[in-house]
Amino acid sequence: xxxxxxxxxNSYAKLPNIFFTEQNPIPISAPKLIIFNHPLAESLNVPxxxxxxxxxxxxxxxxxxxxxxxGHQFGHFTKLGDGxxxxxxxxxxxxxxxxxxxxxxxxxxPYSRGGDGRAALGPMLREYIMSEAMYALGIPTTRSLAVVxxxxxxxxxxxxxxxxxxxxxxxxxxxxxxxxxxxxxxANDVRTLANYTMARHFPKAETYVEFLREVIKRQASLIxxxxxxxFIHGVMNTDNMAVSGETIDYGPxxxxxxxxxxxxxxxxDEYGRYAYxxxxxxxxxxxxxxxxxxxxxxxxxxxKAIELAQTEVANFTNLYKNNWLAGMxxxxxxxxxxxxxxxxxxxxxxxxxxxxxxxxNTFRNLTLGRTDTNLHQWNERLQAKHPTRRPHNPAIIPRxxxxxxxxxxxxQGDLTVAENLLHVLKKPYAYTPEQEEYSTPPIxxxxxxxxxGT
Length: 454
Ligand code: AMP
Ligand code: MG
What we know:
By secondary structure, the chain is α+β, with helices and mostly antiparallel strands. It is 38% helix and 14% strand.
């Protein structure tokens, strides 16, 4: 292991200045470490420095900025930007990987609008647990390096302890970043952003059409993974969709317990726009907004450009479907493809819905060869126990009631509940005896509500 040190090389800050504002984190009075991700720090080769994680110190070669972006929020276009986050720089790992190091909850920026720029301990620890669980489940995601309590109070519906999350991402380029360039910048700004993003995330794409195609492919793969695992993002606004294809912005997200395609947890999602069953459709909608920003780059002839964009966006549905079907086959242990696979899967899901089955545990039980009586007649193609199922069906997910327990304890100063939860979530496919007690679903999961992490 090399001596851990920051190794900043800031490329985003070289973009035209409409894309960001130089802004230091606002110092805090009494930083206290809540949790630090040692394995992640080791793999990135970054040091533990409380004052940096608190936003009180700027390491050499860091170049703190707030990023500008826009976004469609529940369908409505708005100018946004990092209102409570600062990108302190891009760190290059020993293997040459470039990652954004971002402090979330680090004080006001020019994009804060009416907000205080701060975040509360509960939501930041929640993002830490969720993102690390997603990573362990094998789903592309931003990571969490640390949570630091600020020692300051943030006023929400009640007074809460303030905290800062250090987020590590392949980048924070969002669909909303492109919308920002297309709406508030010049044609050249869009081109510059596209070239930058292609070089950073899609080096193999040779044309803008290929770039669009690859972005769509990654989203189709990502959203299929969410559906297969029962993850509900909760606020799939275009500003919360990363062009790199990582899950980003863990606000009101939650895992579904009882299988019901209509499940919505977010208290602000009144009409169920981002319900479980709508996620693929909403992703396609976001990708159409993304494609619109690229129109001038796709072809000089506007109609031709629209046609190209439409063809690519229309592919999403099939790409998604193929990913999802392949994933479902793997979950069921169907190693041979058959023409009635989809029917078999739909039948299963219908039985699950009718019987209020727990989504994760149904597949977990299949993996363990514990056949549910409801599923007895369902199909003889499924051998009782199939060894290939295990890597596709987690024994454990971060269940809402367990996260809540961990967060309440943490707010009282007891981190052990969160640490134990994080420990069992590290190897979700291990099927260890200690994971057993965490697999019990809550008594009434449908009543669970999540709130935006503001
Ligand atoms: P989110 O719903 O977390 O994706 O945030 C939507 C927008 O609101 C982003 O531009 C955030 O930076 C901004 N925002 C959220 N919370 C705050 C806050 N407490 N202070 C300032 N801006 C915020
Ligand atoms: Mg956001």
